Every structure is written in C-alpha cells, then in structure tokens.
Amino acid sequence: MDKILRIDLGAEGGPKAYETPLGDYSGLGGRALTSTIVASEVPPTCHPLGKENKLVIAPGLLSGSAAAMSGRISIGCKSPLTGGIKESNAGGQPSQVLARLGYAAIVLEGKPKGDDIYRVFINKEGVKIEVDNTLKGLGNYGVVEKMRAQFGDKIACISIGQAGEMKLSGASIACTDMELRPTRHAGRGGVGAVMGSKQVKVIVLDDTGMAMRQPKDPEKFRKANTAFVEGLRKHGVTGQALPAYGTNVLANILNEAGGYPTYNFKVGRFPGTSKISGETEAALETERGGLATHGCHRGCVIRCSGIYNDKDGHYLTKQPEYETVWAHGADCGIDDLDKIAYMDFLDDDIGLDTIEMGVTIGVAMEAGLLKFGDADGAINLLQEIKKGTPLGRIIGSGAAVTGKVFGVERVPVVKGQGIPAYDPRAVKGLGVTYATSTMGADHTAGYATASNILKVGGFVDPLKPVGQIELSRNLQIATAAIDSTGMCLFIAFALLDQPETYQSLLDMINAFHGISLTSDDVVALGKKVLKTERDFNIRAGFTKEMDRLPEFFKYEAVPPHNVVFDVPDEELDSVFNW
Amino acid sequence: MRHIHLEGDGKLEKSFFLMLQGGFYVECPIGTSIKEFLVDSIGIDETYLAEKISTIFLDGKCVDDIGKAVIEEGSTLALSSAMPGLAGAILKRGGPLKVMRDGISYGKEEKFLQKRKGICSIKLFNLLTEDLGPLFLKSGIYIKARDLSGLISTKSCQFLPRDATITVDGKSVDFEVLLDILKEEEDELLFFTFDVKWER
C-alpha cells in the first residue's frame, strides 16, 4: 500500500491509469487520506460534478491485514449535496481487496468526453479501463451480476446505480459484501453522483494471487489483535447487543427518550415502534430463515448485520440498519417492516442514501404529496427515481431541494444534508455535532465515544458537568481519528469502557507499521483532519452561519418532553476553538 | 378480570418476550425508588442491576440515580442493557456524556410520596427481555387482551407444542378458544402468567 492509482477519465485518447508514490500522503489512510487529497488537489470552488473534482477511494491503515474490524473504506470528494468536503465510508469487501492489491487509494479525476460509461478492472496484472455501455441504466444488483458472470465470484465491486448515473445528490456508492451483493453503501453526501460524473459505473477488484498484508512485527501484532478481539467480545454492546439485534436495537430506547423523530420531526415518539424495533426485526429474520447475526466483511467479529428474507423465505435485502428503519419508518409514519425492507432493497439497487431518501420522503409527506404512513406511495417515489422522471429527480436530489420545490418550511437538513435518526432537541449534544460537523448533519461525525480514553482536549471527569460544546468537539476529533484508521466505528463503545482494548488497537497499528503511535498522536491526527476539512469548507465559501440547525428546532418544542434546541449560536461558533 | 395461564417449554416462553417491549403492568409500591422496587419487590440481583441494566427511563426521562428516582402511580419504567453508538453512550445512566441530554434527564430534586400499593407500567428492551422476561411472566403481568392476541393471532395452533396447556380462569381451553376470547375482549385488561414446565 505504497502507491496511489490515478485514473484520468479526461485524458487525450481516452481514460488513462497511472500510479504515483504516496509522497506527502505517506502514513495516512481512510478519511485522513481522502480529505487531505481532496483539500490539496481539488479547487474548493469547483463544481462538484465538473472535471476538477476528484473522487478518492481509500482503505484504512490496517485494511487487507488480519486485523479484526479493519474493513471500512473511505470515499471522499467535494460533495454535490453540501458543497463542502465529504468523506463517506462503508463496510463490505472492497477495502480489504484494494489494500491487498497494494493501493493506498484510487483517485478518479478529470471527465470523459462523450457519453460512454466505463468499467474498471483491477487485479495483480494491472488496470483495464473499458467502455461498457451494456451497464447503462442498470441497478447495482444487475451490475454486480454481470460482473460475476464475467469475472467470477472472487471479486469485490464498487458501483453506482441509476441515481449515480443521473448524478443525483442523494446517490450513494455501493460496495459488495461477503456474498457479493451490493449492500454496503458510502451513502452520504452524494458521492455516487461524483462517480457518475466521471462516468465510471463499476470498479471491479480481484486480489487473486495477492497475499494478505503482513505486519512489521508479527508476534506483537498477533497478540494485540487477539487482545482487541477479546475486548470486543466481552463487552456488552459489541459482544452481545449488536450481534443479537443489530443497530436497530436503538429504536426502542430513542423512542422512550422522546428522541425518535416521527412524522418529519413533528414529535419524538412513534406509536408503531415496537413493530419495527431491532428486537422485532431480529425475531422476524430468524423465523423466516434469514440471519439476525452476520458480518458485512471478512474479519468482522461484531457482526451487527443480518439477512432479511421475505414472507416466503427468499432473500429480500440485508438487515436494514437503525437509521434506515427510522428514515423509511417512523419519520414517514410507516410501521410495516416488510415495506421498509423493500425500500432498503430499492435504495441499495438504485444507489441511494437511505437516510436522505427517508428524510426527503418525510418532507414530501409534509408537503401533502402523499400521506404519512403511505408505504406504497413511498415505494412509488423511489420507483420514480429509478425511472428518472422529473418528480423522481427532485426526490433523488434530497430533502433540501424537495423542500424548496414543494414550499416546505420544516426541512431537517444542515448544510443541505438530511438530519439522521436522533432528534437534536432531545439529545442536544448531538445537535451541536449536526450543526458544526464539516460533513453536514452527520450522526457519525461525533460518534467515537472513546473521547474519554483519548483524553481529547483534556480528560472529561464523569462526575463534573461539562458543556455540550467541549464534548462535541472531543467526539468529533476522536471520530476523525478512528475514521482515519479505517476501523469500524462500532469498536468505539468497547474503547470507551475498556482502556486495555483501546491500547490493543494502538498496539496493533504500531506493530503493523513498525511505528510508535501514542494517544497524543491520535488526537493530533484527528485535529489535523478536522482542520483540513474545515479549511476546505471555508475556502469553498462556508461561513459560521452555516453551522446552524434549521430554525424550527429553536421554536418548535418536540413532544413528549416539549424541549427545543437552545444551545446559543456563540457556543456553536466555539466548537473548533482549540 | 380474566387470568390466562400457559404452561409449556422454554422455547414457547421465549415467543412471548417480544410482547414485553411494548409495555405491561405490574403491581408496585408507589413512593419507592427504582432501586428498591427492582431489588426488593421484583427480586433482581443488585450486581445484575448495576452491571447489566445500563439505561433506564422513568416516564421517558433518563435516570442516572436509581436510588432517588421515585415511582409514582401510573409511571412507566423502561429498562435496557448497554446500547451502541453515541446515542447509547449519551443515554447510559451516569455516563460521562449525560450532559448531552440534560433536557430529558430525570430531575435531581427528591420526591417524597406516601408509600402504598399501586400499578406501574414496565417496558423491557433487548437483552433484558430474555434475562428478566421469565421472572415477570412467572409472577404474572397485566396486559391488554389486544396485545396478547396481536402476538399470537398471526400464528397457527402449531405455534403451541402438543403438550402445552392453556387455562382461562382455571379452565383448560384450546388455542382457538383462547383466540376467540382475546378477540371478544380486546379492550380488556387481563392477568397473564407463564410457567416453564420442561425444557426441550
């Protein structure tokens, strides 16, 4: 992993692949690498769909090795949804395979002439870029089936569906899972539209003949990896709750807390929650012969995903996650798990961000386009996107655009990106992160609950009240650091509660690369990533006035607790003061 | 009020756990703390309470100090194990991130209510349904007939093992009769108990 594969789609005579050394990017992985390349090489004021934008795809620091949980892949660019920098990451197999092929990143740059679409194939022999217009108009499942027929089933694919081809701002990039299904998505920020603008439909990765990446100190690495896995397995969240019920285990408690946004953020509780909860979902999956416990990539020991079968016991989709079930469920007033699972399948196939689509359909319901609870109507809207109708293109462009077109005031977005499944009036600390994140409203931007152990910005004494601002800042720094390792963010809970598990992660990185990274270095990396991203956004024209939640959160109290978001603007402006 | 009693195996008992997430009623001592109620009245082990019941809501408010939060007539007490992600960490009782949800935390002021018998609602979530469900089902819960029929009406009589028994007010009935009763009296509250008589 000491080189970058660059593909110039706009080269004279057609797309050309070439390699460059890591150079100044040496030592970076995941989000740190994508954001640094974008900030250094992409003009901040460029059009996100233009030739000057770049799409950067980077595995993590430990991807392709035997390290557990190392299979996240980061995808970065200037976002067509937010207009700022974007890093969106996904699970699945491509991260491991790309790393074994020796690439620290793939960079798609330039823009092709004409309207051909391309298929990129990468194996140990090299890179082939070919026109394949038979892929035009296909969904992700169709694309992957064609690639399987052509290249066999030892591959991993990174692809876009119809939404990406149409360059819609809600478009995602699909990564295949262990079963070679396009179910793991870099969903947020419209990264699929940027891949569509490069006219690359699919990147096929084949690591046949390539060895697993080897650590500098195999014995220390093996011991650290063993301790890390033991730490994850013994923890109540990573060892029990997530494997048993998946991420949707959160539905019941967010609902109980009155922080489960319902009917387009009108209220904080949904009457149908027990019909769509993680507990119900897991029981249904088991009853129908699916799986309630399943990993999204090899080397995952948490296994928070699953297989969702239809009523006849046939595969319908992977286990829809908490945010997906919420977005297509409570936010739209829909309590039918089968319909929600079908929408998850459609999102994966068309290549759409499930959060953005659920939030957008909620806004459309608010506008009166369809009624809250109308599951078939919601499915029809997704089909409109697939068909590319004018209405479909509006919906596929996200909640902000849809709100403007239909004259809706209650549009839950920050920097143009839909707010996820936690009401910021009930959980105000999350509101601070939604407002100030460099990514737009993003629940994972301040997800790394390990900030206490990292001691970011000073140790947070649990016995003393500490402000929301300081905590949000620390969490965002810690998250930027973990995203840069390429590790799954779900390790965070075990890191928070078990200092020895956090130490084993550091030991693993150090043994693998032959370095001596400390907690302070990790903090410094997180700060550097955030500073780089924020600087890009400022150069792109962002101001502090964009670090705000929509106005309605300030004056519309959300039942049952009837609370508003009342963190002062001046405090929001101090999040990045360190 | 009808008393519906089932006897069967552990697998059958497990199929009733999903019902517990939606809430059920139990008799409880009004005016006592959550800790007193769970330990002294329900019989939950203190270590289990400290280590496994990580997230607690009383009337929708996140509780940090279970020794001070007091159960009132008609209160709803929701119990959960540790939860993932940032939201899970924020909602965790006594956690370092609790300030991030201060608008929905249970108040610090102490309440003094006259102690007496009353009724409260309990919700059991995730891992706790399997751990604590048997305890509540054995001692008995009050639920709406609609909630019980909602769970079993979608199932055929094969749902019950052949040797399972159903009694309504002490009289043995078959599965279809039970469904008819639940349908006819769907708005009524009933008392439900389950005994595990054998394991398979």
Summarize the SSE layout with pairings.
The complex is a heterodimer of chains A (578) and B (200).
Chain A: E1 3-8, E2 16-21, H1 30-41, E3 55-59, E4 73-78, E5 85-90, H2 94-100, E6 103-109, E7 118-123, E8 126-131, H3 140-151, E9 156-159, H4 162-165, E10 173-175, E11 184-186, H5 191-197, E12 200-205, H6 218-234, H7 236-245, H8 250-256, H9 273-276, H10 278-287, E13 291-294, E14 305-309, E15 315-318, H11 322-328, H12 337-350, H13 354-366, H14 375-387, H15 390-396, H16 399-405, E16 413-414, E17 417-418, H17 428-436, H18 451-454, H19 468-485, H20 492-497, H21 499-513, H22 519-539, H23 552-555, H24 569-572
Parallel strand pairs in A: 1-6, 7-12
Antiparallel strand pairs in A: 1-2, 3-4, 3-6, 4-5, 7-8, 9-10, 9-12, 10-11, 13-14, 14-15, 16-17
Chain B: E1 3-9, H1 10-14, E2 24-30, H2 34-42, H3 46-52, E3 55-58, E4 61-62, E5 76-80, H4 85-91, E6 116-124, H5 127-139, E7 141-144, H6 145-152, E8 165-168, E9 171-173, H7 175-184, E10 189-198
Parallel strand pairs in B: 1-10, 5-6
Antiparallel strand pairs in B: 1-8, 2-6, 3-4, 3-5, 7-10, 8-9
